[in-house]
Design brief:
It is built from two helices and 26 strands. It is mostly beta strands and 365 residues long. The chain folds into two domains: 150 residues, Immunoglobulin-like (Sandwich), CATH 2.60.40; 168 residues, no CATH class. The strands form six sheets. Strands 14, 15, 16, 18, 19, 20 and 25 form a seven-stranded antiparallel β-sheet that branches. Strands 3, 5, 6, 11, 12 and 13 form a six-stranded mixed β-sheet that branches. Strands 1, 2, 4, 7 and 10 form a five-stranded antiparallel β-sheet that branches.
C-alpha cells in the first residue's frame, strides 16, 4: 500500500511541470548591418605611352605628331605631347568614376594640379588589356566592363608661363565619394628648359703671311642648357664669306672677298675627332671633305638649315652613327667640344677681313 502511494505522488509531480501551450507558432527577427566598401579607384598604366613632336620646329628625325624616338631624357618643349593609355577600375562600378585626369606637382601622389582630362575610350583589345598587368595584390584582374574601362590621356606642354621647370606627372581617377586613385608610375619631367650654347675663346689670325696657313687658339663650344635638364644637343657649324669693312683696296686673291673655303676646322669630343669624319654631304652647298691633317671644310649658312639643310652636311663631327644621329656630335648639358680653326690664306692677298661670321648651332633632340 505504501508502495502504490509513492508512485502516485511521483506521477503527480511529473504532470505538474509540463507547461501549457496556447498558440501554434512563435518566432523573432534580426536586422543585419551591411556596409559596402567604398572602393578607391585603381589606375594601371598600359603599354601605349608615347612622346610626340610638335608642329613648331620638326627636327632631323621626327615630324609633326610623330613619335619622338630620339628623346632619351625626360624633357619636353612647348607643343610637344605625352600620351598615356590607362586602365581604370572601381569595384563599386565604373560609372561611379566621375573624372580621370593628368596632374602636375612638386611631389608624388594625389592632390596635385589638374592639367588635362582623360578621354574614356572603351575596350582596346586583349593585347592592350594584358599589357596593363592589372592585379589587386595576388589577384589577377579579369576584364569586366561594369567595373573598368580604358582612358586615354594626352598632355600637351604649355608655355613657360604655366609649365616651366620640374614636375611629377601622373594620372588620377576620382569617384563620386571623392575617393582618389593614382597611377603608381609617377614620371618626372623638365618642361621648357632654357637652352643655350657657350663659346669660350677667340678666333684671331694676326699678321698672316699670304700663301701660308695659320691656326687659331682652340675654342670650346659647349651645351649650356639649363642645369639638370638633361637636354641633349645636336651640334652644327656654318659660316659666311669675309669682307674688309674699310676702303683699303682689298683683294684676296682676285676680289675683295676672303671666301669661306679658305677656312677649315679640327674638332674633338671624347674618343672622336674630325680625323674620323665620315664626309657625308647629302644636301649641303659645299662638298664636305676631310684633308690629310684631319681638318674639315665649313658649310655655308647664316641661319639654321639655311640656305641648305644642315642634316648630314653641317655637323661638327660626323662619327659613330646610331640611327639618324652621329653620336660623337651630341653634347650633354655641361659638355664641350674643342674646335681649332686653320686659315689657308691665298696669295696674293691684301686687306683686313673683319666682316663675316662662323656660327655654331645646337638643336635639342
Amino acid at each position: 500500500m505504501r508502495y502504490l502511494l509513492t508512485l502516485l505522488v511521483l506521477a503527480a509531480l511529473v504532470i505538474s511541470v509540463v507547461p501549457g501551450v496556447f498558440a501554434a507558432q512563435v518566432g523573432g527577427g534580426v536586422t543585419p548591418d551591411i556596409q559596402t566598401e567604398d572602393f578607391e579607384p585603381l589606375v594601371w598604366l598600359c603599354d601605349d605611352r608615347v612622346v610626340s613632336d610638335d608642329a613648331l620646329g620638326p627636327g632631323r628625325f621626327s615630324g609633326h605628331g610623330e613619335e619622338l624616338l630620339e628623346r632619351i631624357n625626360s624633357y619636353a618643349f612647348e607643343g610637344e605631347q605625352v600620351q598615356w593609355m590607362t586602365l581604370v577600375m572601381d569595384k563599386n562600378g565604373i560609372d561611379k568614376v566621375v573624372d580621370v585626369y593628368a596632374t602636375l606637382g612638386s611631389s608624388q601622389g594625389t592632390g596635385n594640379d589638374i592639367e588635362v582630362n582623360c578621354r574614356r575610350v572603351g575596350w582596346q583589345g586583349q593585347d592592350m588589356f594584358d599589357s596593363c598587368n592589372a592585379r589587386i595584390l595576388e589577384e589577377r584582374v579579369q576584364w569586366n566592363p561594369d567595373l573598368m574601362d580604358f582612358y586615354q590621356c594626352v598632355l600637351t606642354v604649355e608655355t613657360t608661363d604655366s609649365m616651366g621647370g620640374k614636375f611629377f606627372v601622373t594620372i588620377e581617377a576620382e569617384d563620386l565619394d571623392g575617393m582618389l586613385g593614382t597611377m603608381v608610375e609617377n614620371e618626372y619631367w623638365f618642361f621648357n628648359p632654357m637652352i643655350s650654347l657657350s663659346i669660350t675663346g677667340d678666333m684671331i689670325f694676326e699678321n698672316v703671311r699670304p700663301g701660308t696657313s695659320a691656326y687659331s687658339s682652340t675654342i670650346l663650344v659647349g651645351n649650356d642648357a639649363e642645369r639638370e635638364s638633361g637636354v641633349m644637343m645636336d651640334m652644327f657649324i656654318s659660316g659666311t664669306d669675309f669682307y674688309d669693312s674699310s676702303s683699303s683696296g682689298a683683294m684676296c686673291p682676285t676680289s675683295n672677298v676672303l671666301e669661306l673655303s679658305n677656312f677649315r676646322y679640327f674638332a674633338t669630343n671624347g674618343a672622336y675627332s674630325t680625323r674620323q669624319d665620315a664626309q657625308v654631304d647629302m644636301a649641303g652647298s659645299v662638298t664636305r671633305n676631310r684633308d690629310v691633317e684631319g681638318y674639315v671644310n665649313i658649310e655655308y649658312g647664316s641661319a639654321f638649315n639655311n640656305p641648305a639643310p644642315f642634316y648630314d652636311s653641317a655637323e661638327i663631327l660626323q662619327a659613330q652613327p646610331i640611327g639618324p644621329y652621329w653620336m660623337a656630335n651630341l653634347l650633354a648639358p655641361g659638355a664641350e667640344m674643342a674646335v681649332t680653326f686653320r686659315l689657308d690664306l691665298p696669295a696674293p692677298c691684301n686687306g683686313d677681313f673683319d666682316t663675316g661670321s662662323i656660327f655654331f648651332w645646337g638643336e635639342a633632340i
